[in-house]
Amino acid sequence: MRATVVVPVLKSRSRGGQSESASTRTPESRLEEATGLAQAIDLDVVNGQIVPVNDPRPATLLGTGKIGEIKALLDERDSGLVIVDHPLTPVQQRNLEKEWNAKVIDRTGLILEIFGRRASTKEGTLQVDLAHLNYQKGRLVRSWTHLERQRGGGGFMGGPGETQIEADRRMLQDRIIKLERELEQVVRTRQLHRAKRRKVPHPIVALVGYTNAGKSTLFNRITGAGVLAEDMLFATLDPTLRRMKLPHGRTVILSDTVGFISDLPTHLVAAFRATLEEVLEADLILHVRDMSDADNQAQSSDVMRILNDLGIDEAEAEKRLIEVWNKIDRLEPEVHDTMVQKSAGASNVVAVSAVSGEGVDTLMEEISRRLSGVMTVATIRLPVDKLALLPWLYDHAIVDSREDNEDGTITLDLRLSETEATELERRIGNGPKSDKEDWER
């Protein structure tokens, strides 16, 4: 379908009476992003326009002159769809459709459409359906304009009966309740999975970031997984978890989550909470940023705002978050070198290229360092009846050396965290009393 993208730039009044932009992003970057969103669902964008709006109209948002100008462009370009990169009320959406004789969707509707196309698992589909139904509840007035609003009453009830809109709203509400119950089961299933992971306590590392920041490409680079990774907004929707080995042999679970975006619809945040809670459970969060994007600072602010809404405040982020400055391969040589030097001097930043692999080894070392905490050095001699502990040791400790003794016992030089050292003592202490003497510090 041929589509036109309209980006309204609203002006807000400051206390001093001077007009200032209501958005922190440049209009050009908003237009580029909205065009990318449209292209993500295979729309043919034939025109993009930035529209200053000094006095938003309650009925149409835009002024009559600008509406007429856009109408002429639609006729000229034979465009049957208009994407308005701004929230529209149901009345505004209906009036603009009448004026332009074209279908109109706002930013929320466009993002919901993309999510509906991308959802591939039952969980993702449920979450998108729920968000879509909640969005549609307020727009039912547009669905039945070709029908009689009033349905005749009958039977013992008498009276005129309910309107078609009321009946449709009731049907929608029934389906919303049904989906919410199904999602409750999804939440319980995820909680069970998390409980199982805690019993085999591999640390969890979650990738978060603005959509198209390169999370899935980095995920594939680190784990060797085949997750869809394209230069496209919202190429990945459903979360993916994979085991991976850190440089010193420790096993961790890496989680790739849905990309964030500015003005993310509240319907989606609520519906995808079960998925986003994977981030809350993570021991370490990798905030992937596209440093080749001129708007990367504003994108970073949007991601941090959503993390804060989920319950991860600045103090918590300071402990658990590493900034991954991605796509440095796209930078000019001088900018590239400056950024690498700057990241090297920061305590929580690593510059990488997920495509070329530059900096990925440094990132893996930093993940290993951050997860290790205070390391304990230990030498342990495993008796024959405790050799079943070997797989656990290789998963949870760094084995520096191993010696297989003639009597069948094994001597290991280990480095492990305080928590894992305590757990190892507990596991060895469950055996005969003499086994405790084989544990040395």
What do you see in this structure?
Helices cover 43% and strands 21% of the residues. By secondary structure, the chain is an alpha/beta fold. The model is unreliable at 13-22, 142-161 and 431-441 (pLDDT under 50). The longest helix has 36 residues, at 164-199. The protein has helices at residues 27-39, 64-77, 90-100, 107-118, 122-136, 164-199, 215-223, 266-271, 273-281, 296-310, 314-320, 333-344, 360-372, 390-396, 418-429, and strands at residues 2-13, 19-21, 44-53, 81-84, 103-106, 204-209, 240-245, 251-256, 284-290, 321-326, 349-351, 375-382, 398-404, 410-417, 439-440. A hairpin with a 5-residue loop joins β1 (2-13) and β2. The strands form 3 sheets. The protein has a 6-stranded mixed beta sheet, with helices on both faces. Strands 1, 2, 3, 4 and 5 form a 5-stranded mixed beta sheet that branches.
